[in-house]
Design brief:
Blueprint (H helix, E strand, L loop, with lengths): L2 H25 L5 H13 L4 E6 L4 E4 L4 E13 L2 E10 L5 E6 L1
Length: about 100
């Protein structure tokens, strides 16, 4: 195999990877919000039982001052020592990672 054949193979492989990535983003650009909520609930359940939860199924843009990220907004409620605790969160719509959480 000569250098020319090797270079053509590498370029073809990289082009195919870019095309597959772009097509997968167009088909399903965001993670399933129900799965994201289930993962967040699992983390909260490690510390205390959950009374209720919700997630808004449409994405919105979240800005941290440097970048904008599409997020799902949601909330969790639970009772600790007889006192209710409510949290609101913003989870990255692609990865499901929590980008913002606050107790209300």
């Amino acid at each position: 195999m000569n250098l020319k054949d090797f270079t053509i193979g590498v370029v073809t492989g990289m082009a195919a990877a870019v095309i597959v990535k772009e097509m997968s983003n167009r088909v399903a650009p965001f993670a399933n919000p129900d799965h994201i909520l289930a993962n967040i609930k699992d983390e909260f359940k490690k510390h205390a039982p959950i009374d209720g939860s919700w997630i808004y199924m449409k994405t919105e843009n979240f800005s941290n001052g440097f970048t904008e990220t599409p997020v799902y907004r949601g909330g969790i409620s639970r009772t600790i020592n007889g006192e209710p605790e409510n949290y609101e969160f913003a989870a990255d719509a692609r990865s499901g990672a929590i980008v913002d959480i606050k107790q209300i």
